[in-house]
Amino acid sequence: MRRFKAFLLPLIGFLLAIMPLSTALKEAPAALQIVAVLGIAGALAFSKTYAPGAYTAGVAKEVWQDYIVERFWKDNVFLKFFRDAGKHVLVGKVVHIPNPGAKPAVVKNRSEFPATAVRRTDTDITYSLDEYSVDPTHVHNLDKIEPSYDALDEAYGDQMGSLNDVVADDMIIKVLSAIPAGNIIRTSGAAIAAYLAGQTGNRKGAVHGDVLRIRTAMSKQGVPDRDRYALLDEDMYAQIFASLSDTQANAFNQFANTETGVLGKLYGFLIMTRASVAAASSADVIRALGAAVQATDNAVSLFWQKDCVEFALGEVKVFDDTDNPLYYGDLVSSAQRAGGRRRREDNAGVIAYIQDAAA
Fold first, then answer.
1. In a domain, 66, yes or no
2. Are residues 328 and 247 in the same domain?
3. Phi, psi angles (nearest 5°) of residue 10
C-alpha cells in the first residue's frame, strides 16, 4: 500500500499527459500502436519500482521490515512458545492482561434459596512495550544489494542478530524479575566449577531429578500439564543430559525437532537451549539487562507453561536517508517495539531454576 501511494500521483499525471496522444494513436498503424503501448507499460513499471520512498538502501521497505520480523523469529524460536499478545497491543505501545477473579463456589444438593450472588472482581495487568533500535547502517551507492532475504542476511545479519539477542535477553529478564521464592527451584547435583564469566568458586550441578521437582511444583500450582517448556543454558543442559540413563536419553531424544529448536522432552517439558539465559545475585535478584555477572552470582534457567507467560512484538519501523551526499550512499536504521511478562497475578506457571552454592 505504501509503495502504491508513492507512485499513484506520478501515474495520474502521466496518464493526463498522454491523453492528447490517444486520438493520434487510434489513427496510427497497428505496429506503431503496439510499440506505444509497450513503451507506456515499461514507463509505468519503472515508476512503480523506483517510486520515491519505495526503496531503502536498494531494498524495498516492506522487504526490509519482513526481513527484520522473519530474522527475529528465526533467532528467537523459544518466544513462539510464549502466548502471543501481538494482536492485543493498544496504540502500538500498551498491552492489557485481564485476570479473572475468584472462582464461584459450588454447592452440592443446594437446599437454601435464593442463592447469594457474589460479584466477581477482576484485575487488569498492564505493561508497556519497550523500543529497541539498531545503529544506522551506511550502504555505499556502489554496494546496494538485491532485495532478497539471503542478501539482506549477508549485509545486515550480524546487526540484526545483536538486536534480536538484546530483545530476547530482556524478555527473559522481564519474565523472571521479582519472581517469588516459592517459584524458585535450585540445582542439587554434585559440585562443579562456576562457568559464567565473572563467577568464582563452585556451584551444585543440574540433574534430571531437579526437573522432576520443577514438574511437581508447577503441577501443585494448578498449571495444565500441556504446553510446558524449558530454556536451559548450554552448560545446564549438558549437565542434565549427562545425568540421564541410556533409556532416559533415548526417550528424551525421540522428541527432538530441529525446526522448533526442541532438543527433547523430559518430565513433560520440551527442552530448548540458549548460550546463556540469565543470572541472579546470591539473594536471587535477577541481573538487569547488560549488567556484569558478579563473583557470587548464579546461573538461571527458565521453565514455563505457555498460557502463563506472554510476548508481544509490536511495530517495526524502518528509517532511511537515500543518496546522502555526505555518505555517497544511503543510511538506514530500524526500531521495533517488544514486551512481555508473567501473565498470572499469582505468578503460577513460571519457575526460575537457579544454581545453588557448593563448597
1. no
2. yes
3. -60, -35
Residue 60 lies in a domain: no
pLDDT digits over 315-340, tens only?
888 888 888 899 988 888 889 999 99
Considering the domain architecture, whether residues 150 and 24 belong to the same structural domain is answered as no
Asked whether residue 321 falls in the same domain as residue 212, the answer is yes
Nearest to 231 by CA among 285, 313, 168: 168
Q: Count CA atoms within 13 Å of residue 9 on its CB side.
A: 4
94, 127 Cβ separation under 8 angstroms? yes
pTM score above 0.85: no
- What are the cell numbers at 97? 492482561
Residue 358 buriedness (CB in 10 A; 0-12 / 13-18 / 19+)? middle
Same domain membership, residue 19 and residue 161: no
Same domain, 34 and 148: no
115 pLDDT above the threshold of 90: no
151 with 121, same domain: the answer is yes
- What total number of domains does the chain contain? 2
Question: What gap in Å lies between CA 222 and CA 104, rounded to an integer?
Answer: 17
Q: Which amino acid is at 44?
A: L
**Residue 204 belongs to domain spanning:** 71-359
